[in-house]
Amino acid sequence: MNAASENMEFEKAAELRDQINSIDTIMTQQKMTSTDLTDKDVFGYTVDKGWMCVQAFFIRQGRMIQRDASIFPFYKEETDDFLTYVGQFYQKNEHFIPKEILIPSDIDKSSVEALLDTKVLQPQRGQKKKLVALANKNCPCEPERKTLISLNELKNGLSVQSKNWDKP
């Protein structure tokens, strides 16, 4: 946010500020009012310019302990690529499979349940729906950030000077 502000990208800085505030609000609400201590992972995704970004929030005992965002080339159908990612994520990382996994409503719930043998929810209202919406909302900034990082690496490799690429 500060980097965007310093580069006079005030709209981007405001968007990042709003996203930070959204996360802070949800974290605060969970700390104060959450009686649901069920371990859960929350997934969201977006597709933009040939790239898919999948974001995961890891919630343990009512608190978000970590987040993970992955970006990769988009190949087939959004839902197929999402399902492939989730399956590989738990298989490859030998990641703890929580009691609940929250996913966007456009994903086939039964496919995820078959992959992971756990309870899968597609929340329609309340705090859980807000968490899925937040995971989806935060995804669009990831492809842009990764592009800026790649441009910076290219710029440094070619010894090109441009102040617009200095801070991802």
Automatic annotation (TrEMBL):
Any one Gene Ontology cellular component term annotated for this protein: excinuclease repair complex
Gene3D superfamilies assigned to the protein according to its UniProt record, in alphabetical order: UVR domain
Gene Ontology biological process terms, A to Z: DNA damage response
Any single Pfam family the record assigns to this protein: UvrC_RNaseH
Domain UvrC family homology region profile: 42-138
Molecular function terms from GO: excinuclease ABC activity
Lineage top rank: taxon: Bacteria
Protein name: ABC superfamily excinuclease subunit C
Domain UVR positions: 1-26
